[in-house]
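WARN retry 2 of 3 for item q-0093 after timeout on previous attempt; input resubmitted unchanged.
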Amino acid sequence: MYICKRRDYHSINFITLIIISMKKSLLILGMFAIATLIGCQNKEEQKAREQKVQDSFAALMSAKDGEMEKMFKELNEVDVALAEVTNTYAGVSKVANTSGEISKDAKANIFSKIETIKSALAANKQKVANVNAKLKKANKQNTQLQSFVSNLESRIKEQEEQIQALNTELAKKNIQIDALTKNVNDLSNKNKQKDAQILKIEDEKNAAYFAVGTKKELIAKNLIDQKGGFIGIGKTSSFAHNANYENLTKIDIRNTQEIPLTGRKTKLISSHPSSSYSLEGDVKKPTSIRITNPEQFWKGSKCLVIMVD
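OK item q-0093 returned
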């Protein structure tokens, strides 16, 4: 009985050992599996990280290339704009250097185009400065791009100097034109004054005066004097030497050939050759006096006084 119990005890111990051994094997296998799994995961993560770095580097290089391409594009735009400025300047310079006086409209057009050129140069100068600043900030040594920038800066500077020179030349030309215009105007004014003086002299030379009225009216206006006679009888009338010319009508003998008359009887108080005029209308009641020979008619007196009844 005791012997059987001892055998059972040994069987139990053996089984226990087998179970323990199996558990250890399972534990080792589990740990190996876990390690293998972790190792695989680490490799995938490392590969992903490497890919991410490569992608980031590629994106960075692409961004840098894009930035460089953008800068070249901006500089090309400036280059085209400066070519247009050159063409505009050539046209303006040709007109500005034309000999003789420049018309008012041409001047306005020139100054308008100069302002357009100046604005274009200022805008493109700023664009080039921006590109240059980006290059310095990026600390990139791109010989081709830097050479492009330097070339554009030189062209802009040259064109600014050309515009300044053109402005100076136009200013000088304006001074010369203004001086010439002033001389012409002064001469014109002097000629006008001289012509006005000549016209005034001619007008005075060809000016004459006349009055038509009854004896009473002419005496009241102090245009005739009464001389001679006896006790108021037989007096003769003559043109008053101190006559008030404001009571006479002024005429131009160059374009006055006929003077209207009123009344029945007509008598010339002033002295005029009878051969130099004629009375028009009825002999007893003439309607006008026609001057047939102005030179002879006005030779003796430039004042015509006619007394009518």
